[in-house]
Amino acid sequence: MLDFHLLKALHTAAGPRTLDVRLTLAPGELLALSGPSGAGKTTMLRLLAGLDRPDGGFIEAENKTWYRHERRQWLPPQQRQLGFVFQSYALFPNMTVRQNLAFAATGQPQPARLIAELLETLELTALADRRPAVLSGGQQQRVALARALAARPRLLLLDEPLAALDLPTRLRLQQVLAEVHRQFELTTILISHDPAEITRLADRVLELDLGQVRRLGPPAPAAAPLLGRVVAVLPGGQLRVQLPGGTEVLVSGTAGLGEEIALTVEVARTL
Amino acid sequence: MPSDYWQTLRLTLALAACTTALLLVLGLPLAYGLAQWRSRFKPLAEAVVSLPLVLPPTVIGFYLLVAFSDSSALGRFLIDKLGISLNFTFPGILVGSLVYSLPFMVQPLQAGFGQVPPALSEAAYTLGKSRLTTLWRVLLPNMRPALLNGLVLTFAHTLGEFGVVLMIGGSLPGSTRVASIAIYDEVQSLHYAQANAYAFTLLGVAFAILVGLYWFTRRHAERLL
After folding, report:
1. Is B225 in CB contact (< 8 Å) with chain A?
2. Which of A81, A92, B28, B155 is most exposed, with the fewest beta carbons within 10 Å of its own?
């Protein structure tokens, strides 16, 4: 589906570096891209999308050349069949949710049906006539995803789409993402810092550091999230939480009485 | 009111309206280009566009007067080859106004383009939209206050133009005698009541335009929420 070698000068906090990534993606694959900030993750997506020009290398997508340095070939983003979801969502403020989707779907066969289907799939039907400014972060994120899908892309590029959302919204959107990835037969690249999210969604993970590939392979299996029920809210931000086995533990955090919460363990001191 | 009062006002409004419409057409691509352009020569281009802001209007008027006359190559070309004589005509003061009011259109538009987040255009490009479609459907609708600012400032600024018009156009009733020049002429002839009629009209129009601008800008900011 996607075969590329990208070279691009990076300006990192550690000085000038070169982004150098060679990779082949199978059709239908979901690749997670992770690494510290400044590693070149966003740069890599922007090069694939045609928003920036690489310094060297090539990009082949479905046997079509998007970019080839030595032949001076370069397709502008308009001619690459892809969807890009920006970290800032980049919704058009002057258009309603439906108009945002309609703008993207112009030129597609049966646009009205496609838009209705996307609004339905992403649970946006009730919000269709609102403008982006009145929507919550999670809702805006769903609109951004729906809008990218409305152009019927084959490749979907997601720049940290879920980072700014609270945990319940993030878990819901992860499900939605997995669904649309399958339903629309997409090849997807997702930037994510959340190991649990990567394990849940990705077929492979590419870890970048200062422009270089540090690891490429299956995501590390993560422990299932530990769920518990709040049985008492104590002063000083402490909660008494009952675990599935009946054991009770004291944790710090805020939640309501009787609420089910996911626990994370922080290592304060290695023994 | 005497008939030359209405004649002068009509001419003044016609000059302001033509200048604003033409500068919108010329200024949009210029401002878009300047906003996108990344070059070390950009300050040079910006300085040229902004020059009319700092030059005395009589300087602009003087050079245009010379350029349009048959003592310059451009003037000889216009007069001999195209049969266009610009000095002391309405088209002449229109060209002068275009130069004089250029920064009042280009600067707000350039700032407007700069304020729209680049991700919006990029999102449109990844959705397969051309630069022109993106400009028309995404950029311009999201910079309406800047657009209105450019239109209003250009219009109001042209209404009050004096030095450039006087140098190129003189004061010919019906073709180059605009309100600001009429005020000067009436005062010279000690017709204070006539001068006041023009002055008060200009004051009223300028005030109404600015109130309209601020009202719209506020409403627009609320509407996007």
Report:
1. yes
2. A81
